[in-house]
Amino acid sequence: MEQILGILSVLFNFIVALSVVVFVHELGHFVVARWNNVRCESFSIGFGPELLGFTDRLGTRWKFSLIPLGGYVKMFGEADIANPGAGEEGEEGLEPKEMAPEEKAVSFKFKTLGQRAAIVFAGPAVNFVFAILVFFVLFMAVGRPVTEPVIGEVVPGSAAAEAGLLAGDRILAIDGQEIDRFEDLQRLVPLGNGAEMRLTILRANDILDVVAAPRVIEETDVFGNPQRRALLGVSSSGESRMLVRHNPISAVGLAVQQTYIVVESTFIAVGQIISGDRGTEDLGGPIRIAKFSDQAAKSGLANFVIFMAILSINLGIINLFPVPLLDGGHLLFYAIEGLRGRPLSDQTQEWGLRFGLVLVLSLMVFVTWNDILQL
Length: 375
Known about the structure:
Helices cover 50% and strands 21% of the residues. The strands form five sheets. Strands 6-5-7-8 form a four-stranded antiparallel β-sheet. A two-stranded antiparallel sheet has the order 1-2. A hairpin with a 2-residue loop joins β5 and β6. By secondary structure, the protein is α+β, with helices and mostly antiparallel strands. Among the domains are: 131 residues, no CATH class; 100 residues, Roll (Pdz3 Domain).
């Protein structure tokens, strides 16, 4: 019975986290589409058969569907672009139905290039706005963790010990990047993935430069998840450790900065995977997202909300990749259309979408297999 409850807990927290970030993403498309007078036929959280829903006064069907692994906004006329050879009943090879003027006025297909690009870009953009809003509220209501970047202890035999770091050293910068909090050190060292880094430290009244090469080790986190991390081998002195609440002006600046840090860290990690400097075991799919969402929920509401913000950022980044089928792929098509003065041929777009589908499905299979191996 306990195992069943545990599985239900994981599924519930996963569905809540994913549904929130998908809703935010699709809401971006929906609001900008409505703003540009595009008729939205349905707004679905999940795919497949409808579980429950309602129709609003403008004719949009809002619904929850059976498979909670995404969502979509179905816009009038959009199918003519996704499937250019479809006829009135959606069958390939039939001549497209001629739209009446009042239908063209609310059709996605007949909007200007700028309007279509804005509608597509709005989804990922709102994912980033949502994350900024989450950090903004948390930094004001809960506070931002701040610990002085002073070394309290150096682990014997560690990379820090070999580099000559001592307890009491204040870390001022890493590779020229200023360090304001010990939390910055905890973020930057693993991101380096074991590469040598130059630390600028304050010792007594002297400023010194020290070169250290963090060691990549196998360890388990507080939840028992196996992971490889680059560690310097120092701990904080704990000086002035506190949650600092911020006023709205400073909170919004820090929220934007925090969102940028997550985006930058993601791109650095992806670049390391592509170059072969980092293993692909860090890539996770639905199973790992479900596991982490449950762990975040059990560690407190604030952590769960932060997890959703990070998940939202990653959803925004992924959707901006220039892969046909994703938002970034559509934006790529629109960019080419803008340069050529006319859209790509129907056949080219269709083959692009098929290639994108194969690529996305292959990636889903790969990351799901990665999840299974991690389990």
